[in-house]
Amino acid sequence: MDKDILDHLKTLHTSEIDARNGYQEALEDAEGKGLTSLFRDMIALHHGNSEELGGMLINAGEEADDSGSFMSVVHQTIMSVRSLFDGLDGSVLPGLIDGEKRNLAKYDEAVQASAAAPAIVATLTAQRNKIREKIELMQQQNAAYEAAKA
Prior knowledge:
This protein has helices at 3-30, 36-59, 70-85, 93-113, 118-149. It is mainly alpha-helical. The termini are far apart.
């Protein structure tokens, strides 16, 4: 497999782990209130994506490092601090949406780099579409939250 494709897959794999870890922290800090179901859905989505990407890396003879990056610590810290001061209610949605949009951009780059590998493009596109659907759901939740505040 092309080194550029592998690099993109590794980046996506790490990003998915980092996102999952951030949502896990949010779920713990939410203590069963607020956006708990969204956090559970996002944990499942990012875990599934990371497992699938990890499998692709292993199949290509690479190591799939499940530890994430320093961004895991950043995501976890942000969620902990937010829960202490504001709680993890609808006010966190804009930040979550922005983070997921950054993930989409990484997928776009990976799809473009993988154009010569249709099977990889299909997997990445399917994962990207699931994230995009969750972003749309979060945007709807955010609109409802903002309307309720007004």
